[in-house]
Amino acid sequence: MAKIVYGLSGEGSGHSSRAREMLTHLQELGHALKVVSYDRGYANLKDDFDVFETEGLHIASLDNRVSKVKTFTDNLKRLPEGHKKLQALRKDIFKKFQPDCVITDFEPMTAYLANHYDLPLITIDNQHRLRYMSYPCPVRLQAERKMTKTIIRAMVPRPDVSLVTTFYYGEPKNKRTFFFPPILRQEVLSLQPSYGDHILVYLTSGFESFLKRLKSFTRESFIVYGAGKEGPDGHLTFKAFSKTGFLDDLAFCKAVMATAGFTLMTESFYLRKPYLALPMRGQFEQEINGFLLARLKYGVNLQRPTSEAIGNFLYRIPDFAENLESYQARDNSAIKARLAELLADNGALARDFHAKRMRLIP
Question: Is this structure's pTM higher than 0.85?
Answer without folding.
Answer: yes
